[in-house]
Amino acid sequence: MKIEKPLYFIKQVSEITGLSKLVIRKWEERYQIVIPKRLDNGYRVYTEADVTKILSVKDLTDQGYSVKQAAFFIDKIETKPEPTPVIPD
């Protein structure tokens, strides 16, 4: 299994974000904020992008958005399609 580096375990993500491991797991289950890779032993591993996404959602919730709203907003930003270039005739 090829995994992007750097990798973080859930304990490290918890320390970086200030969120409990339980909250991180619940956000994964309920809102699919991130879907971490799993090692052969079942441990979750997170990429830098995963941590950044969790922090973005946390920032929005700190501003008063619900987790659902924040997850939706972050998802829309990430999946925004690139504009199709217009080629002149």
Automatic annotation (TrEMBL):
<dbReference type="Pfam" id="PF13411">
    <property type="entry name" value="MerR_1"/>
</dbReference>
<dbReference type="InterPro" id="IPR000551">
    <property type="entry name" value="MerR-type_HTH_dom"/>
</dbReference>
<dbReference type="InterPro" id="IPR047057">
    <property type="entry name" value="MerR_fam"/>
</dbReference>
<keyword id="KW-0805">Transcription regulation</keyword>
<feature type="domain" description="HTH merR-type">
    <location>
        <begin position="7"/>
        <end position="76"/>
    </location>
</feature>
<dbReference type="InterPro" id="IPR009061">
    <property type="entry name" value="DNA-bd_dom_put_sf"/>
</dbReference>
<keyword id="KW-0804">Transcription</keyword>
<protein>
    <submittedName>
        <fullName>MerR family transcriptional regulator</fullName>
    </submittedName>
</protein>
<keyword id="KW-0238">DNA-binding</keyword>
